[in-house]
Amino acid sequence: MSAIPTVTLNDGAWFPELGLGTYHLRGEEGIAAIVAAIDAGYRLLDTAVNYENEREVGEAVRRSDVDRGKLLVASKIPGRHHGRQEAIDSIKGSLDLLGLDRIDLQLIHWPNPSVGKYVDTWRGMIEARELGLVRSIGVSNFTEDQLTQLIEETGVVPAVNQVELHPYFPQEQLRAFHRTHGIRTESWSPLARRSELLTEQILTELATVHDVTPTQVVLRWHTHLGSTPIPKSADSDRQRENADVFGFTLTDDQLAAISALERGRLWNGDPLTHEEM
């Protein structure tokens, strides 16, 4: 398996084209799973305050044989920590749990629009970056209007927007906005949670054509779109399979056929839980 390629974010930082989601990876088993993923070539580790596993992610980084500078640890500020000072305090709390001297990518987990403090939260994250607590800052689950407000009121463009994205929900308009503003798209739920996605005929046919699995076809679709998927798995074999998607190429017609799955159904995925946000 070749190394996972990287891209450059709008702030000059490097960013992998595929990462590891760590939701539900906890305890010793979780640490072992994350270490196995690092051994398999993953360099982006995605955690959050609400995942309650920042301690495990930090421990996995320490147990790994890979140099710290070659790993990118991302975490997220939850809705209950919105506000300028609250955001800074949340980041410091995450650093304590991670046991690291910096967070490589800090995101606002969601805009929490009913509270309306996401701009103040963003200002706190800008300050945290200036203090050296974090390297890159971005958001998650933000709309075009919310992104525009952040940019217009602070002058700072998020490096990343992590959103739900998969063939049933390809987010074409939002991705176009990201491209225009140099924002990297990151895909959570890249395989569409608890759905029949992987049994779709177009995916099984393309898997046969390319001698890969339907999962690998979908993850390669993400990377061709210019998005970083973060599939979750505690199984080392599955982790390796998920990361081994850069040895084949999907044609424009094949990409369009996968994206057309959205038109075949109206995506109505399960709502996010409080723990995930």
What attributes characterize this protein structure?
single chain, 277 residues, alpha/beta, 8-stranded parallel sheet, two-stranded antiparallel ribbon, 11 helices, 10 strands, globular
Describe the protein.
- This protein is α/β, with parallel strands linked by helices and 277 residues long.
- Helix content is 41%, strand content 16%.
- It contains eleven helices and ten strands.
- An eight-stranded parallel beta sheet has the order 3-4-5-6-7-8-9-10. A two-stranded antiparallel ribbon has the order 1-2.
- Helix 2 (54-63) packs across helix 3 and helix 7 (201-210) packs across helix 8.
- The protein is globular and about 55 Å long.
- It starts with 5 loop residues before the first strand and ends in a 13-residue tail after the last helix.
- Residues 270-275 have low confidence and may be disordered.
